[in-house]
C-alpha cells in the first residue's frame, strides 16, 4: 500500500494527470474521481488534470467540476493515470487504452475482487469506499470544501448512508472531518440518495410487484427485459434503488436484480445480508465487487441465470449451516 507521502509525491512529480473509474459510474466512483481532480487543482494549479468517465447521474451534476468531465478519450499520453474505484483494467471501458499508454499508473480501490493492477496500488477491501481511502491519502489540511463534498458523497453512497456493515469507526471519523470542511450533508443525502424521480418509482413498483422468492424466502429476485424498458422509456439510471429495496425484504439472505442490456444478456446485481459472499459468485462470471454487494454480466434466459445463481447461493448457505 502507498503512504500518504508517496501518493502526494506521485501527484507532485506529474505534469499531466488523467483520472478515471469504472463504467456506469456510481456515487463512489464519481465522487472519488472529481475529489481527486479538485484536490490536485487546488494544490498544484499548474498541472493539467482531466477526468474521464461515462455520463454521470443528473443528481451528481452539482459536484464541483462535474461539467469538466470528458466522456471520450483524447488519446493523449499522460504522465500519470489514477484509476479510482475500479476492480480491474477492463472495467475502465473506453478509457483503458489511456490507462495503458500512461507513463505511470496508480489504482486506488476497495473492491475485494481487485487483485491489484497498475505500477502502484492502494487497495484496502475493508474500507467503506474509495473516497474514504482517498481521503486517507490526502493531506487533510489541503482538502477544500469542494473536495470534501465529492468525498462525502462517495462515502454516503457506498455505505448506504452509514448503515451498511462496511461502515467503521474510521469511516465515521473521516465523514466527521469532512463535515467540518462545510459539507452540506443534508443536501447530499436527501437529493442524491433518497430522492427518486417519477420514472424510478415506476420501475421500483414494477420490480417489486413481479419479484419472486426462492429457497424458502431466503432469496428474492426480480428482472426487467429490454422490451419492457424500451416501452416505458426506462434507462439504467432509473433502476437505482431497486436492488436495495429487494434486499431489505424480511427473511431474505440474498437479493438479485437483473436487467437485459442486449438480447439474452443481463446485467446482474446481488446484495447479501449476512453469510453469503456474492463477490465470490460474481467473480465466477467475470464480475466482482464486495462481499455483500457485487455484480456481473451473464448470458442466457432469466430462468437459467437465476437457477445458476441460486444453486451457488444454496451451497454457501448449506456450508454455513454445517458450521
UniProtKB/TrEMBL annotation:
This is Bifunctional oligoribonuclease/PAP phosphatase NrnA. Residues 224-308 form the DHHA1 domain. It comes from the Bacteria. Residues 17-155 form the DDH domain. InterPro entries: DDH_dom, DHH_sf, DHHA1_dom, Oligoribo/pAp-PDE_c-di-AMP_PDE. One of its GO terms (molecular function) is nucleic acid binding.
Amino acid at each position: 500500500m502507498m503512504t500518504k507521502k508517496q501518493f502526494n509525491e506521485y501527484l507532485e512529480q506529474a505534469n499531466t494527470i488523467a483520472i478515471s473509474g469504472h463504467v456506469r459510474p456510481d456515487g463512489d466512483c464519481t465522487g472519488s474521481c472529481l475529489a481527486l481532480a479538485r484536490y490536485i487543482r487546488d494544490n498544484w494549479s499548474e498541472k493539467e488534470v482531466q477526468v474521464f468517465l461515462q455520463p454521470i447521474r443528473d443528481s451528481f451534476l452539482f459536484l464541483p467540476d462535474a461539467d469538466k468531465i470528458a466522456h471520450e478519450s483524447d488519446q493523449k499520453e499522460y504522465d500519470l493515470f489514477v484509476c479510482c474505484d475500479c476492480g480491474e483494467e477492463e472495467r475502465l471501458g473506453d478509457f483503458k487504452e489511456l490507462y495503458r499508454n500512461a507513463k505511470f499508473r496508480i489504482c486506488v480501490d476497495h473492491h475485494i475482487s481487485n487483485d491489484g493492477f497498475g505500477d502502484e496500488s492502494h487497495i484496502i477491501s475493508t474500507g467503506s469506499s474509495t473516497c474514504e481511502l482517498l481521503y486517507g491519502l490526502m493531506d487533510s489540511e489541503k482538502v477544500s470544501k469542494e473536495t470534501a463534498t465529492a468525498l462525502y458523497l462517495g462515502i454516503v453512497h457506498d455505505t448506504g448512508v452509514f448503515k451498511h456493515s462496511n461502515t467503521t469507526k474510521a469511516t465515521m471519523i473521516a465523514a466527521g472531518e469532512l463535515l467540518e470542511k462545510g459539507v452540506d450533508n443534508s443536501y447530499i443525502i436527501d437529493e442524491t440518495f433518497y430522492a427518486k424521480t417519477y420514472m424510478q418509482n415506476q420501475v421500483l413498483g414494477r420490480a417489486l410487484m413481479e419479484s419472486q422468492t426462492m429457497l424458502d424466502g431466503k432469496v428474492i429476485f426480480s428482472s426487467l427485459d429490454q422490451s419492457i424498458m424500451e416501452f416505458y422509456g426506462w434507462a439504467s439510471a432509473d433502476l437505482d434503488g431497486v436492488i436495495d429495496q429487494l434486499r431489505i425484504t424480511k427473511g431474505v439472505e440474498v437479493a438479485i436484480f437483473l436487467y437485459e442490456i442486449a438480447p439474452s444478456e443481463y446485467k446482474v446485481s446481488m446484495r447479501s445480508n449476512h453469510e453469503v459472499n456474492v463477490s465470490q459468485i460474481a467473480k465466477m462470471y467475470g464480475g466482482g465487487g464486495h462481499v455483500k454487494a457485487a455484480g456481473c454480466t451473464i448470458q442466457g434466459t432469466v430462468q437459467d441465470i437465476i437457477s445458476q445463481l441460486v444453486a451457488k447461493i444454496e451451497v454457501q448457505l448449506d456450508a454455513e449451516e454445517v458450521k
